[in-house]
Design brief:
Layout: H1 8-17, E1 25-26, H2 27-33, H3 40-48, E2 60-61, H4 78-85, E3 90-91, E4 94-95, H5 98-101, H6 105-108
Parallel strand pairs: 1-2
Antiparallel strand pairs: 3-4
The protein binds a DNA duplex (13 and 13 nucleotides) through helix 2, helix 3 and strand 2.
Length: about 110
DNA sequence: TTTCTGACTCGAA
DNA sequence: CTTCGAGCCAGAA
């Protein structure tokens, strides 16, 4: 593959797809892993377009573990339920015990 | 073609 | 303690 020729989005999707079951990561962590630490927004925007892709967008949250993108999912609490279904404790749109379920691509990959 | 906006993050004041 | 601006990319109007 030639990542340079692919859009930034494709790189984002590849990383997100590698997030283990029951784990979550942040937009900034993905951006940093891709070598564009200041492109966290782009990662989020990629998720917006990940609708047609096979990307577990519910495993991507902001740095604080807050489900900022839950409004983009169907229903009002689908994202939260998906996470809880994987064993992630979520309260009030925020992931509890974040450090225990946090998965940093820069460290794990 | 230009302009705008968006699921973010961090450092300064 | 809080608030603000800048940097990044893609797609729609």
């Amino acid at each position: 593959m030639k990542p340079e020729t692919l859009g930034f989005f494709e790189n984002v999707y590849d990383v997100v797809r590698q997030i283990p079951f029951g784990k979550v990561t942040s937009y900034g962590a993905i951006a940093k892993y891709l070598g564009a630490a200041k492109s966290a927004r782009i990662v989020g925007y990629a998720m917006n377009s990940s609708h047609d892709k096979d990307v577990p967008a519910h495993r991507v949250v902001n740095r604080k573990g807050l489900l900022t993108g839950k409004h983009h999912f169907q229903g009002t609490n689908l994202m939260q339920q998906l996470l809880e279904n994987e064993g992630v404790e979520v309260v009030d749109n925020q992931i509890q015990n974040l450090e225990s379920v946090y998965w940093d691509p820069a460290k794990e990959l």
